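Checklist before submission:
- one chain only
- standard amino acids only
- sequence pasted in full

Submission:
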Amino acid sequence: METTDIVVVGGGIVGLATAHQLLKQRPHLQVTVLEKEPSVGVHQTGHNSGVLHSGIYYKPGSQKALLATSGRAAMVDFCQRHDIDHDVCGKVIVATRDLDLSRLDVLEQRAEANGVEARRIGAEELSELEPNAAGIAALHVPAAGITDYGNVCVVLQTQIGEMGGTVRTGTEVTSISEDSTVRVTTTTGDIEATLVVTCGGLHSDRLARHTAPDTTERIMPFRGEYYELAEPRRHLVNNLIYPVPDPDFPFLGVHLTRMIDGSIHAGPNAVLALAREGYRWTDVNLGDLAEVLRNPGWWRLARTYWRTGLGEYYRSVSKRAFVKALQRLVPAVQVEDLVPSPAGVRAQAVSREGSLLDDFVWSETERVVNVLNAPSPAATASLAIGDAIVARLLTHPV
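Returned file contents:
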């Protein structure tokens, strides 16, 4: 049986960042990353909006707040050092109704608590930054930006190899058993490791249950559906235009985002996917769906958010309803301006009580660290998350 010091399960940006930071701190260790797909960053990372989040939204003192700001700075530095396309272009969070103004106040307070620069602006200054945006006030957040996280993953993979680590693609983990060492069974053979960290994204709860069978958190796959502006209409958006989010719902609402290639993405709309890797309505996995329906947390969640959910589903089936949501931010957007764009699937952990877990969550056994919930801004914060995981991992004997 093959042996190694540490196995990292998952070749998305969090798994790769963890392996990268581990090798930076402990270059003598043997580190092996296992990814079931033929290449790295295929799922959440590869369908990411590419935003460099500032950290303004998150509850002060939370893992998100602590790691997003430091992680954004680390990611910008990483992109600069490795010539990865990025642009710290800033964003506006736009209040379109009186109700939004008190929520904007809360965001200002969070920005100050989290050390994020944010400046309240009026409609006139908003029109200077985004001439086609409509709002009665806004927050301008200059630290926000965009990059290509798929390219970041490719560079991380190269760096891991140059530091002596291994990234093995096309290798799916089928079981993990823990004793005096950890045995990882894969589709390409077994590996014995001293320590294991799982960063499985859409399958993180399943991986955790191999060594922590009492794990109660479950992943619910929410598909984020996008359009993009047809090329002649890209001038409607300069950078990033976001609504003021609903503080009770861990999604940011439909927004407009300039991508690093110059395209303008509109969305996402968030609906329950019918498979953990269900990027289209026709992608159905009966096993995944049955697992959702058997979970009491799902039914409690549905009872709590049924009105919000109906709105999401309505926008999913009605392009006009989707456009109406966008027109609150940019009134000039018309139905004919939008063309379909690939969807993503967000791995959202839900508690047994039906709560959407809004923070990063990980758990530990004697020799295994499981990342159970790493939603947005995990890509932005990935290098800082990697450092945090390594700090936990290295408290175990290796």
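Reviewer check: Residues 221-348 form a domain with the D-Amino Acid Oxidase; Chain A, domain 2 fold (CATH 3.30.9).
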